[in-house]
Amino acid sequence: MTGMDNLGGALKGLGSFARVLSIGVVLTLAGCVVPSDGPLTQEVISAGADGRAYEIPKTKIVFDVVDIDQRVANNVTAFGQPSLARTFGFGGGSGTPVIGIGDKLQVTIFEAGPDGLFSTADHKSTTIPVVVQPDGHGQIPYVGSVRFAGMTLDAARATIVDALKAKAVEPDVIVSMAENASRTVSVLGDVRNASVVPLGLSAQHLTEVLALAGGPAKPPYDTYVTLKRNGRSGTVLLQSLVDNPKEDVIIKPDDQLFVTYDPQTFSALGQTQVSGKIPFKAASLSLVEAAALAGGGNLATADPKGYFVFRYEYEDVYRSVVGDDRFRDLIARGMSADREGRYPIVYRLNLAETQSYIVAQTFPVRNKDVIYLARHFATDFAKFLNLVSGSSSVAYNVKRISQ
User: Are 249 and 85 in contact (CB under 8 A)?
Assistant: First the structure.
């Protein structure tokens, strides 16, 4: 009897344990954090500068959350791309070309008589090669040292003619550029013939200089051009020079051009059908087109009010979108730029509104954007119920075994 009593007590204790376990599991699940795939729509909005009800810690990234409407889409389109013309000015050429150090000249001297200093019975002229030395001078027989550096070809001709009038027979002179070593541009990177390109006597555009270097090795919509001049630099997509001739600036001596192949991509995350890095494969991409490349949203879990674009924007774009006062306020709160001078921002598209599908056609997606489709808040509740249901079934089975 003692053994039976002990067995009954054990089973009774096990039943009590099962009841406690079932209650404990439910309470634990009610208080736990349900596994999720990124923040909810309201959590993204609350993370913005206006959504912080507390003082922002220095370790937090300060950014604004902006709803996309037609005004925002238009401003992002108008100001969104970096501009060489705004950085350097379009330029009206590099001024009148002059002779520089290292240039190779051909100086041809004519005389009227057959027995002059530079003429014979067979030849009425003599051609003299001249290399401009580091001190800017070059030597001409019977003239001596002539300072060519800083002179135009016409000025050099007049100087030599004047020096020969008392020595030669009715002299005349032609000065031509045999090799231009002082007015050059370095073209490096993903071009077919990286080289130092000499500039001609007339103004030359950036695309013309690239052509002299063999042109870009990759498609223009995946190729970037960086122009460096006098300590400043600017980078643009090569396709933008094709689409907007005003960006095809005049190149000046000593400019440097770096051509880089960097395929345009965006990252799709969250409740999109396709996740990961997705290539543009085009010169430009609208938000609607990007959404289509990502396969649209998961109808069972996506929140149509939470379609977000995370990016860093240039200051002039940011100011045009939020206004100067708002921008200064964000700076005061601690918003800071990345190494390229861009500031963090999040754009939100509410796909529950019909007009959003029209606006999204004019909102441009940029290279390296992160597009995030939030999950619906009901998804977490459904997960919770599934977990509770599964745990309750386990507790019920344990109870039956103990009885």
Answer: yes
Nearest-angstrom CA–CA distance, 211 and 222: 17
Beta strands in 162-252 (DSSP E): 172-179, 184-189, 195-198, 223-229, 232-237
N- to C-terminal Cα distance for the chain?
A: 19
In which residue are the tokens 């922002």 written?
56
Give the pLDDT confidence score for residue 79 in this predicted structure.
Answer: 80
Q: Which secondary-structure segment (H or E) carries 210?
A: helix 206-212
Given a contact cutoff of 8 angstroms between Cβ atoms, the answer to whether 234 and 226 are in contact is: yes
Of 248, 251, 247, 157, give the one whose Cα is nearest residue 198.
Answer: 251
Beta strands 64-67; 256-261: pairing state: unpaired
Dist. CA 303–CA 352, nearest whole Å:
9
**CA 97 to CA 144: how far, in whole Å?**
24
Q: Are 209 and 185 in contact (CB under 8 A)?
A: yes
Note the pLDDT tens digit of each residue in 116-155: 899 887 888 999 999 999 999 999 999 999 999 999 999 9
For CA atoms 75, 81, 82, 88, the dihedral sign is negative
3-state helix, strand and coil shares in percent for the chain, rounded to the nearest 5: 35, 25, 40
- Give the angle subtended at the CA of 81 by the CAs of 304 and 239, to the nearest 5°: 105
Strands (E) in 62-213, as ranges, are 64-67, 104-110, 125-131, 137-140, 144-147, 172-179, 184-189, 195-198
Interaxial angle between packed helices 324-333 and 315-322, expressed in degrees from 0 to 180 and rounded to the nearest 10: 110
Q: Strand runs (DSSP E) across 315-352, as ranges? A: 342-349
Predicted TM-score (pTM) above 0.85: no
Question: What are the angstrom distances between the C-alpha of 293 and each of 13, 288, 387?
Answer: 59, 9, 34
Q: Where are the alpha helices (DSSP H) in 32-129?
A: 41-47, 70-79, 84-88
Residue 166: what are its φ and ψ, rounded to 5°? -90, 0
Q: Which residue has the tokens 């949203």?
A: 297
What domains lie within the chain, and their CATH numbers?
41-82+264-380 (3.10.560.10), 104-179 (3.30.1950.10), 183-261 (3.10.560.10)
d(C-alpha 39, C-alpha 151), whole Å: 67
Reference 73, options 359, 369, 366; nearest CA is 359
Burial of 55 (0-12, 13-18, 19+ CB in 10 A): exposed
